[in-house]
Specification:
The protein has 13 helices and 20 strands. It is α+β, with helices and mostly antiparallel strands. The chain has 3 domains: about 5-155, Zinc finger, CHC2-typedomain (DNA Primase, Chain A, Alpha-Beta Complex), CATH 3.90.580; about 160-275, DNA primase DNAg catalytic core, N-terminal domain, CATH 3.90.980; about 295-395, Dna Topoisomerase Vi A Subunit, Chain: A, domain 2 (3-Layer(aba) Sandwich), CATH 3.40.1360.10. The protein is flat and about 55 Å long. The two termini are about 45 Å apart.
């Protein structure tokens, strides 16, 4: 295939024109008054049809030094060409894709890769990635661009928010790693944390290690991070410290997520749940689970902990009964049966959510079954109050669509 791809940039939404011979198809209109700059990019070098692709995107260029300087202003965000270049150099597209659990399935010439598209339900590889140019294009949904554009589409955010997420991803990962290690050190030094975990049915050191569970007693984190060289401004902007300089997580059992922290209060005075600013991310520890033909989906991390502890390694967690777009896409990225072990609330909200999710999954060709937990129970309380692996297995076997 030989394809010449022409990327047109504007400060508005994408416009995609596919030209083949004399025919042109308009998928989206560019709003009147938007300014565009047109440059040529070659993604595929072996398309005899000579197809030309036009795409508009929010940022001024797609990673090529030959482009003229151009500033982008969107809302309150303004970044010049140099700043955008520096950000994209720090985040190679392929690295970011792999961090979002995208996996290439087929190599192409020139070091390029094909794989399933993470932006829509894809059943055969249609997503082209050129690591050298740090560009992507999907032949299925017709969307493409650089790492910033991918972040916009994947996380369903606007341009300034995408920049913020990427900057977070650059700097937050090593910071969060240091924070998690600090909290893990505190766990076994604080008797109240160990007692709370025991009350919630978490007894195994294996599950504590697997989930990297820690404890935030409150105090000490700021000085610890300062010793490691993290400035106060960085720690504060990450949401780890309050405006008054105190730890944001106090008397909370802490679970590290993909690019966030979940803290569960062990007392009744504080709000029970706390996250850092930003997305909760994808399904919890999805990568080792995605290979299973049968997957158990639970709502909460304490549900996950007791189910995994009971020996069910094919469990994952959505951190709530409502999945974000990425989590839903992950469930649909292969042929599998999903067992929805949602809470059996007295008000019926958990089972209603499970029924709605079952219908959505079935519409995508994914088999889904609802696990009939006893009334008033979630998986955590089921095991805490005497349930065992054999009983839970019987519940899975009686699950219905």
């Amino acid at each position: 295939m030989r394809a010449n791809c022409l990327w047109r940039l504007s400060g508005a939404c994408d416009t995609l024109l596919l030209r083949s011979g004399t025919r042109t198809r308009l998928l989206q209109r560019t709003p009147l008054g938007s300014q565009t700059i047109v440059q040529r990019v070659v993604l595929a070098e072996d398309d005899p049809g000579g197809r030309t692709l036009f795409v508009t995107t929010h940022h001024p260029r797609l990673g090529f030094r030959r482009f003229l300087p151009h500033a982008v202003t969107r809302g309150e965000e303004s970044m010049n060409r140099k700043a955008l270049d520096e950000l994209k150099q720090q985040i190679p597209l392929l690295d970011y894709l792999k961090a979002q659990e995208w996996r290439p399935t087929r190599p192409l010439s020139g070091g390029r890769w094909m794989g399933l598209c993470p932006l829509h339900t894809d059943h055969k590889p249609s997503f082209l990635v050129d690591p050298h140019k740090s560009l992507f294009y999907c032949y299925g949904c017709g969307r493409g661009g650089d790492v910033i554009r991918f972040a916009e589409l994947y996380h369903q955010v606007n341009f300034p928010q995408a920049l913020g997420l990427l900057r977070e991803w650059c700097g937050l990962t090593p910071l969060l790693h240091a924070v998690v290690e600090f909290y893990r050190l505190q766990l076994h030094r604080r008797n109240e944390a160990v007692i709370y975990l025991d009350q919630r049915g978490i007894h195994s050191s294996a599950v504590i290690e697997h989930m990297r569970i820690g404890y935030a007693a409150g105090g000490g984190l700021r000085s610890w991070l300062t010793q490691l060289g993290y400035p106060y401004s960085v720690v504060r902007s990450a949401g780890l410290i309050t405006e008054t300089g105190y730890d944001s997580y106090i008397r909370r059992v802490v679970f590290p997520l993909e690019s966030n922290l979940y803290g569960r209060s062990i007392g009744s005075a504080a709000p029970p749940h706390r996250f850092l600013p930003g997305s909760k991310g994808g399904l919890y520890l999805w990568e080792p689970v995605r290979r299973y033909s049968e997957v158990i989906l639970v709502e909460g991390l304490f549900d996950y902990a007791v189910v995994w502890q009971a020996g069910f390694r094919n469990v994952t967690c959505s951190l709530g009964s409502h999945l974000n777009a990425r989590q839903f896409q992950q469930l649909c990225d292969g042929t599998r049966t999903v067992y929805l072990a949602f809470d059996s609330d007295t008000n019926g909200s958990g089972q209603s959510a499970a029924q709605a999710m079952s219908r959505r999954l079935c519409a995508q060709g994914v088999s889904a079954r609802r696990v009939p937990l006893p009334d008033g129970h979630d998986p955590n309380s089921f095991f805490v109050q005497g349930g065992d692996a054999q009983q839970f297995q019987r519940l899975l076997e009686t699950a219905r669509p």
